[in-house]
């Protein structure tokens, strides 16, 4: 059970084992793009490419859907970024349980956006957890965890891909251990839990008074969505590929210190940030050098147009 690319990676890994995948469940096709054309989810596309049966109930509580699962009698149900809370009737069905890949080292970063918030908060260690699902949100007992260390220029996009691969490998290892009885689930310590709430567009508004290090994390954590942004001369600028510059400018935060082929250097509350890519509303993402071919950048960025 899953929907986005992160889940499709896990499905592909499962198919490589030779185990039977009796049914793939994904969210219904949704309109996408300017033309609002119905588009299949990445998980559905992967399933159809391998000739697998696909179910797309509007709700996992649908009686016909639950009846279909009961007929199959699966040994395990794998749910990865499915996007719906599973009912107890489903959780209690498979003998090996309903397993979930969560992109954090639980109980840290429960919720919808663990990858983004771990980068925004500057975590030096990230990872994945394989848990046995219960009726709570990311509160199930932990079966296996794998950690990794993000690079200094890691973005949410690059970390999604890495954790998808790590999670898929951890899932296969967990299933092997479950079959042999070589694994014991550990309950989470709720006292250590933190929450990774869904992101909003306004989370990307840059406060240049903050230290450059914090903004460096923010920009990377919000790439590719919703992106970090600020305003200059009434235009909205989005910022990408930041580089730390450990110098104090003596200028007010948000001031453009230079804009040339080296990039766009902006004063922060502490130290400075050098950006190598920017984008303005309605236009393509460009290198700063390319952007400057058509127009200069000077002045001071502000939180409002």
Salient structural properties:
Rossmann fold, elongated, four-stranded mixed beta sheet, Methionyl-tRNA Fmet Formyltransferase, Chain A, domain 2, single chain, 305 residues, alpha+beta
Could you characterize the architecture of this molecule?
- There is one protein chain.
- β13 and β14 form a beta hairpin.
- The chain has two domains: 5-196, Rossmann fold (3-Layer(aba) Sandwich); 201-291, Formyl transferase, C-terminal domain (Methionyl-tRNA Fmet Formyltransferase, Chain A, domain 2, Roll), CATH 3.10.25.10.
- The strands form five sheets. Strands 11, 12, 13, 14, 15 and 16 form a six-stranded antiparallel β-sheet that branches.
- The chain contains eight helices and 16 strands.
- Helices cover 26% and strands 24% of the residues.
- The chain starts with a helix and ends in a 14-residue tail after the last helix.
- The protein has helices at 5-15, 42-49, 63-72, 88-91, 114-120, 156-180, 212-221, 288-291; strands at residues 24-25, 30-32, 37-39, 54-55, 77-79, 98-102, 110-111, 126-132, 141-148, 195-196, 228-232, 235-245, 256-260, 263-267, 272-280, 286-287.
- It is of the alpha+beta class and 305 residues long.
- The mean pLDDT is 97.
- It is elongated.
- α1 (5-15) packs parallel to α2, α1 packs parallel to α6 and α5 packs antiparallel against α7 (212-221).
